[in-house]
């Protein structure tokens, strides 16, 4: 990894060359190629259409954790670099039943994230959304996907995985579910990491409390304060694989949730205007591709799967 003390041009070039010629990176990129193919084929074969990514927009995900927010000036307008396509997905499913996109995200994470092994400031997620879908349907779809993906990768990359000494188990359906608040009570504040180290298979954390997520995840009408959403967690300490859930779609609910977050209507004026004209109920999720490849390869650090990794706080080409 690059540190400021090796930021001489010569060092940057030698570091990059060394990284690019690392056999582990070559394996990761072969796996990456297969992963993208399987993901695309899986959703296409189930009637999802692929849409191109949005890279700049006046509208992007507010996220629920602090990141530095870069903007560009686009013909006198302020455009954000996409942190996620959550709002664009919702607008799209007003017109298309089921969509997915390989979406590059820029999230300039704080430098304390450099050592998690899970964070890059530039990554890609496959972002999926379906009109009228429930969380339950999306969870079932993800379970089918993960079983198929791990089985196929194991078969196709048996030699690569052997070289890495990686033993990968095909997950078994149905994946175990933990309720967020119960897990927190039993395993403490760090329950996700604790459970990820303890479990041998992928598992779900569901029913995340309102303050822990963004305003657009749907609040359960029968359980105020609890969202109809989910995270999928990798075992062996690899932690979060995806986040998703059902969405708020009614104008009054959206406005109330924005207010509860202490955010402004001005920030989301375009989205609110669409909601005023009517948005459909929908559900979806986003899977980080680099994290998925890291999990498959069993690498300690996510930077090892990317040719030009933007590790938070570090210099990178
Ligand atoms: P989110 O909706 O914020 O949970 O993001 C969706 C998915 O993208 C997460 O579940 C991760 O797999 C992935 N992801 C989020 N942030 C990062 C990051 N900084 N670096 C790499 N992957 C990320
Ligand atoms: Mg998440």
Automatic annotation (TrEMBL):
PROSITE patterns: AA_TRNA_LIGASE_II (PS50862)
Pfam families, alphabetized: tRNA-synt_2
GO MF annotations, alphabetized: asparagine-tRNA ligase activity; ATP binding
Superkingdom, natural source: Archaea
Aminoacyl-transfer RNA synthetases class-II family profile domain segment(s): 29-309
Record GO biological process: asparaginyl-tRNA aminoacylation
Assigned keywords, A-Z: Aminoacyl-tRNA synthetase, ATP-binding, Ligase, Nucleotide-binding, Protein biosynthesis
InterPro entries: Aa-tRNA-synt_II, aa-tRNA-synth_II, aa-tRNA-synth_II/BPL/LPL
PANTHER family found in the cross-reference section: ASPARAGINYL-TRNA SYNTHETASE-RELATED PROTEIN (N-TRUNCATION), ASPARTYL/LYSYL-TRNA SYNTHETASE
Name assigned to this protein: Asparagine ligase A
Lineage, uppermost ranks: Archaea, Methanobacteriati, Thermoplasmatota, Thermoplasmata, Thermoplasmatales
